[in-house]
Structures are given as C-alpha cells and as structure tokens.
Amino acid sequence: MNPFKYGQIVTDLDFCPRPQLEKELKGHIISGQNVLIEGERRTGKSSLIIKTAKEIKNFRTVYIDINQIKTVNNLIGRITNSLISMDKESHLFEKLVKVVSSLRPSISIDSLTGSPSISFSTNQTMPPQSVENLLEFIYLEHSNRKNIIVFDEFQDILNLKDYKSIIVIMRSRIQFHSGMPYIFSGSVRKNMDKIFYDPDSPFFKSAIKLEIGALEKKIFRKYIKKKFLSGKKIIDTSLIDSIFINSGEKPGDVQEFCNALWSITEYNTTIKQDNIDNALKVIFSREKEFFEHTISLLTGHQLRCLTALANLGGKSIQSGRFLEYSGIIHASSAKKAVTRLANLKIIYEYKKEYHFNSPFFRTWLIHKNY
Ligand SMILES: Nc1ncnc2c1ncn2[C@@H]1O[C@H](COP(=O)(O)OP(=O)(O)OP(=O)(O)O)[C@@H](O)[C@H]1O
Ligand SMILES: [Mg+2]
Asked: What's the CA gap between 202 and 11, in Å, rounded?
C-alpha cells in the first residue's frame, strides 16, 4: 500500500512530528488559552490540531469544520453534527435535541451505521441566538468532561449574510468560557486578519497566533526515508531535497510527489533522478487539464506575468527586470495583472511576496517553457 497520503487529515504514524508547534499548541490548550492558527492550504493545520488535541489526556475535541458554510442554518447543522459524532455513547444526543427543539430539527438514522444525525429545514431562517444556545450547551457539558472547541476554516464565517451579529454573539459567549480552549484555524489570511486584527472586530486580538508553514526539513527527510524503506526503496537526501524544491516544501504537495514517486518505483530499489523526473510527469498528467483550463482564463498580459513569476519569483513585480521579462511596459499594468491572478487564486501574497498556490503549476510552466 502506498504509505504517502495527501488531501486528508493525517494522524498517528502518518503524522510527521512537529515538536515545537505541538508543544506550543498543547501548552495553550492545557492553560485554556484560545488559539488562532494561520497557514496556507495543505500545510497541515487540521492535522496538527487533531493530532495534538487527541494526545491531551482528559480533553475531548469538538471539531467543527465550517468550510463553505453559507447560512446560519449550515453553521448550526455543522455544530450539532460535530457534537453528535464526538460523543456517541453518552446521552448528549437527547440533550442536544432538546436544545435545538425550537428549530424544528429533522432527525435521521443512518441505516448502515445506526448513527443519528440532525438537519434543519432550509425554509426557516434561524436566529443568530441559536448559535449562542449551542455554545452555552457545550460549555455546560464542559463541566463534566473538558472540551477543546475547534472551528476549522473559520474565515468562512464571513460568508454569512449576518456574520457581524454572529461574531458579536460568539465572542460575547466565548469570553465567559474560561478554561475551555477555542482553536480557530484558517487559510485565507486576509479574512482571518479581518476577524482577529481589525480593531472594530469583536474578536480583535482575542486569540494567540500560531503560524503553520513547512515541516522541519531534517525531521521530514527522516520520515520520508523511513516510509520509502517500508518498501525497501532507498532514497538519498539530495533527491528528497529536489522533491522539496518541486513541491514548494508544502507538506501536502511533498506527500503528493512522494505518492507519485512510490507508485512508479519497484520494491527493493534505489531511487534515481530519472524516477524523480517521471514522478513529476505523473503529477503533470494528473493536473494538466486543470493547468490548461487556468491558462485559458488569462489574457496575454496576465500569462506573461505568471511566467515571469514562475521564473523570477514574486518579490519585486514592479522591478525593471520583471517588466522586461514579462514584456509589460507600465508597472501599474503588472500590478493589475498580478491582482487578477491573485483573485483567481492562482497566486497569493504573503509578506510582500507572491507565491503559487500550486507549486506544481509553477514547475509545469517552467518545464513547458511558457
Ligand atoms: N505533520 C504532517 N506529517 C506528514 N504529512 C503532513 C503533515 N501535515 C500535513 N501533511 C500533509 O498535508 C496534507 C494536508 O494536511 P491538512 O489537511 O492537515 O492541511 P491543512 O493545512 O488543514 O489544509 P487545508 O487548508 O487544505 O484544509 C496531508 O494530507 C498530508 O499529505
Ligand atoms: Mg484543513
């Protein structure tokens, strides 16, 4: 079986240790401190939270992923169903049904697993106060057994039409929940910052920030070598480093690369540069359609800017060199093109530098000589 996993939360033996971050996060949780976790897509935010929380004795995790929620009903649905799946044995389900009874829930039982779930009619718009009742309910339960509340992809709270009143309500309850740690995680920095660093926001500076980025190289190399060895495949450090370069050191992309490399190599072998090149081809063939479609959305200017970014990096997009490379005359046009690329989520800006969302897209542009 391919030991490299991507596109999913990794725990246990699939989790490459991040000792410093795990220690910090654990410390905050135990002291009841609220935490804000920020990092790009596929850097391992969710995995770090789940893995760390799981290892803390006497705490249980209420993991609420609010990715792509659109309405208060969605939010309430996500919270209630997270509670149900967290606690199958106790009488929490019956108590929970009472809390939400005024919202006229529909209760269904999965015929295969026998697990109950709750859904709410989309016709009825729920009052933001229902979120308050649920948070209070969790806090009351906390006196029986300690909870860690995780709101993953928290920036999507901003999708709600009445998000302002929701976050006022959430914050006003959360501040009284002493000793019950909340973790807010998100990948869209601009929106997370709007919630946590805008002085007008109720959440202003209400949580301590942890930045998640690349894994520590030395530890990740050891992890990768060991995984390959499970199939008697030997890989040396320089080849792992070339995987890091091609994958922009993003944990999820590194794992995707290793997954492809594993799939094209025999058991009992020493991995060579050729294999690395072929693994890259496997990834390109999987993603080609998406890359080509993305390019079809761009104007000539924008594409030239993109290739300049791929080849020169994204530090100084208004420099003479960048303009010359991209064949763009005015710095303001380059800025406009780059803004469009960011709006299309092809690139993102971090610390005054532009980066590709998919490192493989960058490599592909270079390989194709675009
Ligand atoms: N500690 C780790 N050890 C090994 N691989 C990891 C680790 N953390 C993340 N990964 C890799 O990254 C992938 C994505 O991890 P995860 O879903 O935790 O990231 P995320 O930052 O929450 O991503 P997203 O923003 O897309 O939700 C995993 O499937 C795995 O391939
Ligand atoms: Mg995640």
From this structure: 33
